Amino acid sequence: MTDSNSDEFDPTAPDQREIGREMVDDSTGLGSVMAHVYRGEIDRVGTWRERLDETTTWAVTLMAAILTWAFSSPDNPHYILLVGILIVTIFLGIEARRYRDYDVFRSRARIIQENLFANALDPSQGVESHDWRAELSRDYRRPTLKVSVYEALANRLRRVYLALLSVLLVAWVFRITAFAPRQDWLTTAEIARIPGIAVVAVVGVFYVVLLGVTFWPHERHAKGEFREGDPDDWKENR
Questions:
Q1: Which of 78-82, 99-103, 167-171, 179-183 has the lowest mean pLDDT?
Q2: Please, is 188 exposed, middle or buried when counting C-beta atoms within 10 Å of its C-beta (0-12, 13-18, 19+)?
Q3: pTM of the full predicted structure?
């Protein structure tokens, strides 16, 4: 195999990109190094996955506490639910930031899986990226975030936070309508001297923005782990 330290290193050359087959056939130093690299990347993926789950757990816990208190007495103000929406939105921002870091290590692990281990198991399929070694090397030299803040927010909204914020919205609407049947719901929606129509308008605009961020078509940059298809194909092919 061509020396990867040579000035003539070509990451697209067959003997350079298909090192997975050599790792299986022979015991090489590079194979041992890549095994340790992969183990380290998987460990960091797990660590950041746990941090994502912790953020979601805190958001759900605080949301449950706010919902319980808001409906425990008719005298409790309705705007506590709006405070809950604000708090959950803050957790959304924290989780989006953590997701961007998580995706860095997940992307590295997926590159190794697709181009090294998959090629070692079935060399007939080749590699997914001809210059994957150069791509991985560049990322180790200059680590960069792979997804934008917008994409990270959209991902976390679709997976978790749109559902949580929707529950809080339904609870707030119920609180200012059915929970105070003797008053006009716009009057009930007032906060101090802020008129109810202004409060409703702000909440409405906020949720329109959320829906736009969640469902507006955009190019995906995050490295996917799963492919669409029939789940039964796995069992049929075994």
A1: 179-183
A2: middle
A3: 0.79
Reported residue count of the chain is 238
Could you tell me the residue ranges of all domains in the chain?
29-215
The torsion region of residue 159 among left (phi > 0), alpha (psi -120 to 50) and beta comes to alpha
Token pair of 56 as six digits: 């979601």
CB 202 within 8 A of CB 190: no
Q: With contact defined as beta carbons under 8 Å apart, do 164 and 231 qualify? A: no
Residue matched to tokens 């290193």: 9
Cα 49–Cα 171–Cα 60 angle in degrees, nearest 5: 20
Helix (H) or strand (E) holding 52: helix 29-70
What is the structure's pLDDT at 163? 96
Count Cα neighbours of 26 within 13 Å in the Cβ-side half-sphere: 6
Instruction: List, for residues 157-213, the tens digit of each pLDDT value.
Output: 999 999 999 999 999 999 888 876 667 888 888 888 889 899 999 999 999 999 999
Residue where the block lists tokens 């992969």 = 38
Closest CA to 84 of 105, 97, 109, 65: 65
- For residues 96 and 152, the answer to whether their CB atoms sit within 8 Å is yes
Look at the block and give the residue holding tokens 């990226």.
129
pLDDT tens for each residue of 12-47: 666 666 665 555 555 556 667 788 889 999 999 999
Q: Long-range contact list for 98-101, CB < 8 A, 24+ apart?
A: 98/48, 98/51, 98/52, 98/55, 99/52, 99/147, 99/152, 99/155, 99/156, 100/145, 100/146, 100/147, 100/149, 100/152, 101/48, 101/145
